[in-house]
Amino acid sequence: MADDDRPASPPPAYPTRWEADVVLRDGGTAHVRPIRPEDADALQAFHVAQSERSTYFRFFAPLERLGPRDLERFTVVDHVDRVAIVALATIDETEHIIGVARFDRIEPTVAEVAFNVSDHHHGRGVGSVLLEHLAAAARERGVRRFTAEVLPTNGAMLGVFREAGYELRQSLDDGIVSVSFAIDPTERSIAVMADREHRAEARSVRGLLTPRSVLVVADDANAAAARTVLTHLVAGGGLEVHAVGLEVPGVRRCADLADVEGSVDLLVLAVAAAQAAHVVRRASRLRPHAVVVLGAGFAETGPEGLELQRDLVRTAHAAGMRVLGPASYGFFRQPTAEHPGVNASLAAELPGPGGLALFCQSAPLAVGMLASARRRGLGLSTFVSSGNRADVSGNDAMQFWTEDESTDVVGLYLESIGNPRKFARVARRLAATKPVVVLPAGRSGHVVPPGHVVRRTRAPRRVLEEMLRQAGVVRVENTHQLLDVCQLLVHQPLPAGRRVAVVAGSAPLAALVAEAAASAGLTVVEQRAVRPTAAGDADEVRRLEAEIEAVYADPGNDAVVVVHVPTTGEVDPELTRLVAEAAARSGRTTVATILGHTGLTPELTATDAQGRARTVPAYAAPEDGVLALAAAARYGAWRAADRGTPLDPPGLDRAAARALVDEALASVPPGAELTLPPERAARLVGCYGIDVWPTRVVADVDDAVAAAEDLGWPVALKSTAQHLRHRIDLGGVRLDVSGPQALRDAMAQMRAHLSAAGEAAATVEVQRMAPAGAACVIRSAEDPRFGPVVSFGLAGDAVDLLGDVSYGVAPLTEVDVAEMVRSVRAAPRLFGYRGVAPLDVPALEDVLARVAVLADDLPELHGLELHPVVVGEQGASVLAARVTLASEPGGRADGGRRALPE
User: Fold this and answer.
1) Is the N or the C terminus of the chain less surrounded, counting Cβ atoms within 10 Å?
2) pLDDT, tens only, 722-757
3) Cα–Cα–Cα angle for 355, 238, 389, nearest 5°?
């Protein structure tokens, strides 16, 4: 295939937003960016290094070198009609092109594409990453279809197209395969990208957490922290450990990085921030998979530190490394059958091995969490501290823990969430198989600690909480609760429901615990006062055993709460033994508060029918136990439910909607808002099957009567002033006007009322009356951090003042939509409140679903308001639509391409 022979033109502004770091299939990293004129030498070197076969596949002819005219044509592009993107990697401290992809527009919405991947990097997924990024750039430039000409023997290139999830058209003509496919994301292409992202990021984190050789580099100012980590690495055994700048027994000491031979899997840095990127660049020849940065002095210090942090991450990614930190407490991984384990952290005393994986960002918080886990006897499989979270985040760790057989439960303490949309997607996938317990540092997500780089947000404070609920994670309020819930989920089966039996040493105590359980959302089905045994009395033991057995034999409860706090004497050991054995034997979820027992204890441990040790977790107070049990029950219900599939309602015309948006924004600067006229707003939402009732704007009463005659009686009159159009109480609305004279009277009264109130006699809208029902409001807003945020509520001042609104972050499922409608406190009005006939909730849910899909498809939909949506006994009538468009600079954080944090 020959490239376009049009003469090169000076390029417009370089699209910096297209630059990104990516994780490849093998877990390594690369940098992707638009090509530049100064890349000519690197492109020639890339071309010369290719095999004759690869060159023939690309150009359909042998071509030993690129001529000057070809080099200029390939590297000088306009980033609009002629676009080229390269993948870069640092090898031996030199940046090399490892792949290049380009498109040339041949029709307004069609472009011809070509790809070339380095022979030395085949099999790493470079081609699929380049296709994603090239398609995202093309969509931004208005291209909607790619075509390519490929030799039939070029199976690798055909495979890249075929496996991307697009619907391909192929034809064979004169020995050439012509391929054509639409590049708008499809359900399958999105799923393919997410699966590739998952596997690549999981592998990259595995490379971080399972090194067999480690190099620690320190300077004098940071030697103490580095020496601590070195000591821990050596003490663990099984690792090859090197050091530069330190001397520790058992460690291979080198005077300089140049003296380190061979390769290493992990680099640990404890150097000044200004030297970090330089050290990483020099160490790149050793091919480490990752670097742990212990030192501070980066983004938390201000703009200069932020630039040092970005330089460090860019350098590491170009060399194929992931970065943990800066300001990281490190990580540890318990031994497994495949790996000896590693302690690359500052923690001298580790919790024992177990099924819990912990992630936190703050180093000081790590100290407290690990100490609390040790005190409880709560074992960990893995611990990761991300510090400033410049690269490796909770999202990456969850990708790894999804596949990790030694991890049963994941606990996350998050000071910030850089990409909430991706977090929800990744957490939802993990929570489908393993519990995820999350402690966000703030309820709103608006407060960002120093050093954490995140996008701004306009989302209401409750959106973070709704996003976590939607993702199926267990949200907790503090580190104490986080470990309370985790110890229950690791050591007990999930409760089958919310029905609870309370067993206590006295009736009053049982009643108090039952009240706490009910307040936590559990249903108490039994309260039993159980008297402890008399020492050495076999009959008393049999009596107690029968009472405990009766509780666990009852099929009417799903969980048991045991409280034993003797006011005199000692704790009855028979009670702890019998409870542990009954819980293990029955598989009934159990929590306990027993004087003298906290956390996971041998006295409350027994073997189940499969030979596994099961421990009943002990809590300092009954309230702690029932809160943990309630959280487990909520998660169990979420996991047991069918969450549905992403929404895909019928009758969508995505192409028409995209064309309308592109046309509207063609002359609008990036970031500037544009409010569509009502008729164009109606056309846009109409592309998604949302029919807006017609209105007529009139200036005098004769026009109003004519409009009513045309639309049909009875009609409503509304002021066109935005602050009055929904306000009957302020005289801006007249309803159920049934004839010409009534209309004349209503219009005169409205204008007189508004004039007396000091309002100008503005134009009014005439609209046919909708059937009686409940008025609702559906909105969406594109948030820079959260992406498309959809909201629902019933209309009215009381609802607005009380904040009775539900939120969802698209994409949503039909289950998410149903929960949004039912979760508002005013929802009973929709289901037959006080004898009123039930309304057509499915029709309302259909409108809400279509708004969610519209918002997800169009990042330029800055704001949408359907107000009111009147739900009747049959159908839902959308009476008005207000649409604001804007092209957000930088695009959506979790868009249609894989990319590491900015």
Assistant:
1) N
2) 666 667 656 678 888 888 888 888 888 777 776 655
3) 55
